[in-house]
């Protein structure tokens, strides 16, 4: 007996009463499932503010078609239709249960279980066809129901002991940037952000000082706290005011429609609040790429403690040195400004005001076996953040290295110029372990000072060497931060998140390559290119990659290299090789997060 001959089988075996009940169960099962799909479709329409075609009726007065009364009437009719479907569904459900009992009473247990499975198999194609019809209807309206929303489970990496439900994974898969509809519009915060943006763009305070200097009668302006604006600033202020008013109007208009998606919003809020209130979990993003990582807080703390317990890199402080260090740096900058050794722009960028300690957090390296954490410092608002930005502009001229990757096009062009016989060579990647925390600060600062004061001719009106060293010390060596309620000082290495971190790392590595690469090229390195801490190397035949890696690690105590090796294909696949190498390196090409990215 199967789905094709079940009725014939029951007739041949004189199971006429069983055949009748079988047909009844099948009929009510199919109707129940189809009505269930109808209800799901109608509820999806209500949630997504879609009006089904059967509720789109004409009115004698065409103006009523766009009125709020007409739309409210449609919503009420949709609600009434959903209520009617639920009543019909409950009635069918009771009849289905009753028919199942009748079928069970008139046939043996084995036959009953077999018939139930056959009923499901027979009705399954019809139900799937109905599901496809519902999906097509919603797709034509460019919306899908929440239950049909597809998400990539691989985006969410659960490293904790807590098991996540499908709804939680689906909600987290939207990413950390996913925003829910706010319950209210914070007008004061929006206006404050616009004003801050205006101040940064126009540098209004500096222009105000210049214009005030030309005014004869300053007392009324000062007493009324009036800002004197130029014509361009007045025009910009007018445009920003208009844009702010438009944005506020649209935000309030959208907020009033929030009830249309309240079910979806409520579910998302509930799931996210439940996860955020779980004190045993840490929810963050991975070190490379996009996604969500969930960890046990105990595991997160233990891995961070391993990093901070390195007494050669970090030191726990018993006090917060923010105010003292801000005062010392401000006094130094003020003296240099008075001596005309720094520009007004440098002063405005570097001077600290209302500083606060940085915040340290860790990003899981999910591409590593033991999933270590990369320490990242959110340094925006710290006393030396502006100084780092100002110095970055000043010392960027030191970056001159042919071994650094400029762009993908140059990289592919260089690969094509390599001699023929690719199959004889080895493609190798040398990675530097924990580059930023292992950069020797004193040595790197000395390289910078030697470049500007020994190699380059020092102009008479620039910062003196001793003062430059003090500025570099403030920007690098005196960087404190908060972690888990404690204040730490980074006594060596640079923090990922500092404006100077990529630059200092590049300066140190360029000096390393300048000193040691010529010797290693004689040992069999045919091609060497680097992006930050990842290198792409091609070795000559017979050269041991592990041997080269070991000798590289012996060149400087601060640098430890690891190696990954791959043999290249033969000559006729040269075009495929360049494409493969491009993809390979693009995955490794991750720009270090600055303070802005770290805060975000």
UniProtKB/TrEMBL annotation:
Domain of life: Eukaryota
Pfam families recorded: RVT_1
Domain (Reverse transcriptase): residue spans on this chain: 344-598
Lineage, uppermost ranks: Eukaryota, Metazoa, Spiralia, Gnathifera, Rotifera
The organism of origin for this protein: Adineta steineri
InterPro entries to which the protein is assigned, alphabetical: RT_dom
Protein name: Reverse transcriptase domain-containing protein
């Amino acid at each position: 007996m199967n789905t094709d001959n079940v009725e014939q089988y029951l007739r041949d075996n004189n199971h006429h009463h069983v055949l009748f009940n079988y047909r009844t169960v099948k009929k009510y099962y199919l109707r129940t499932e189809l009505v269930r799909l109808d209800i799901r479709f109608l509820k999806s329409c209500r949630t997504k503010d879609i009006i089904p075609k059967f509720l789109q009726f004409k009115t004698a007065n065409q103006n009523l078609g766009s009125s709020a009364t007409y739309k409210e009437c449609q919503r009420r009719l949709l609600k009434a239709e959903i209520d009617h479907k639920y009543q019909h569904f409950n009635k069918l459900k009771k009849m289905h249960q009753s028919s199942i009992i009748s079928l069970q009473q008139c046939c043996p247990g084995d036959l009953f279980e077999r018939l139930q499975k056959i009923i499901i198999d027979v009705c399954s194609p019809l139900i799937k066809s109905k599901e496809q019809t519902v999906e097509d209807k919603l797709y034509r309206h460019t919306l899908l129901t929440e239950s049909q929303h597809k998400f990539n489970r691989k985006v969410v990496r659960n490293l904790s002991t807590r098991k996540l439900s499908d709804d939680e994974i689906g909600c987290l898969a939207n990413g950390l940037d996913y925003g829910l509809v706010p319950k209210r519009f914070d007008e004061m915060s929006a206006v404050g952000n616009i004003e801050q943006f205006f101040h940064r763009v126009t540098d209004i305070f500096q222009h105000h000082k210049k214009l005030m200097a030309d005014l004869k009668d300053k007392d009324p302006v000062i007493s009324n706290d009036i800002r004197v604006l130029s014509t361009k600033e007045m025009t910009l202020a007018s445009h920003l005011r208009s844009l702010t008013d438009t944005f506020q109007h649209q935000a309030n208009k959208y907020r009033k429609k929030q009830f249309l998606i309240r079910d979806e919003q409520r579910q998302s809020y509930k799931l996210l609040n439940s996860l955020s209130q779980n004190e045993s979990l840490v929810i963050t993003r991975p070190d490379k790429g996009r996604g969500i990582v969930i960890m046990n807080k105990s595991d997160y703390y233990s891995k961070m403690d391993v990093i901070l317990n390195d007494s050669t890199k970090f030191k726990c402080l018993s006090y917060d040195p923010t105010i003292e260090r801000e005062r010392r740096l401000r006094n130094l900058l003020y003296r240099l400004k008075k001596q005309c050794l720094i520009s007004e722009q440098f002063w405005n960028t570097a001077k600290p005001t209302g500083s606060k300690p940085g915040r340290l957090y860790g990003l899981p390296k999910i591409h590593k076996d033991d999933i270590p954490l990369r320490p990242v410092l959110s340094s925006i608002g710290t006393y030396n953040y502006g100084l780092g930005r100002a110095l970055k502009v000043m010392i960027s001229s030191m970056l001159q290295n042919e071994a650094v990757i400029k762009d993908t096009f140059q990289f592919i062009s260089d690969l094509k110029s390599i001699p023929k016989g690719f199959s004889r060579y080895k493609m190798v990647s040398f990675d530097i372990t924990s580059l930023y925390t292992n950069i020797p600060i004193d040595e790197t600062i000395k390289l910078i000072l030697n470049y500007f004061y020994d190699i380059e001719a020092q102009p008479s009106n620039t910062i003196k060497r001793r003062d430059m060293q003090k500025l570099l010390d403030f920007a690098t060596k005196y960087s404190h931060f908060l972690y888990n309620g404690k204040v730490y000082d980074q006594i060596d290495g640079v923090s990922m998140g500092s404006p100077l971190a990529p630059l200092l790392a590049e300066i140190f590595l360029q000096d390393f390559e300048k000193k040691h690469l010529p010797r290693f090229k004689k040992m069999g390195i045919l091609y060497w290119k680097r992006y930050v801490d990842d290198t792409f190397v091609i070795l000559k035949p017979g050269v041991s990659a592990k041997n080269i890696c070991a000798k590289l690690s012996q060149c400087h105590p601060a640098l430890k290299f690891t190696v990954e090796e791959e043999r290249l294909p033969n000559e006729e696949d040269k075009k495929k090789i360049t494409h493969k190498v491009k993809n390979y390196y693009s995955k490794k090409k991750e720009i270090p997060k600055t303070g802005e990215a770290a805060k975000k």
